[in-house]
Amino acid sequence: MALRILSSEITRYKAQRVKALKLIHGYGSSGVGGVLRVAVRKELERLKSRGVIKLYIPGENFEIFSADTIKMLDCCGQLRNDRDLGRYNNGITLVLL
Questions:
Q1: Most CB within 10 Å of its CB: which of 10, 62, 66, 82?
Q2: pLDDT, tens digit, for every residue of 18-37?
Q3: CATH classification of the domain holding 31
Q4: What pLDDT does residue 80 have?
Q5: How far is CA 90 from CA 13, 16, 33, 36, in A?
Q6: Angle between helices 2-15 and 35-49 (to 10 degrees)
Q7: Which helix (H) or strand (E) holds 92?
Q8: What is the pLDDT of residues 58-88, one digit of tens each?
Q9: Assessment of whether the complete model's pTM goes beyond 0.85
Q10: Distance CA 50, CA 29 (A)
Q11: How many domains does the structure of the chain reveal?
């Protein structure tokens, strides 16, 4: 159900010309994996391979030395002020539409 909602929301936001999304899925109550986090990222990889999204960045990779982060910041400069930039938050994923 959650993945179906994710796909429909991505479609809706793309139609509204939104450039990026920040998904807050948590990291799992055990702090080890989180079923939702893993499923969301797997779905995002599928959407990327189909050309539906441009890229996604796991929160733990959302830092200024990442090539994907640099691409996202070039497209969406306001993310330079995002509180999670450089905080290695594995409970979020950023998506460039």
A1: 62
A2: 999 999 998 876 655 688 99
A3: 3.30.1370
A4: 97
A5: 23, 27, 9, 12
A6: 40
A7: strand 92-96
A8: 999 999 999 999 999 999 999 999 999 999 9
A9: yes
A10: 31
A11: 1
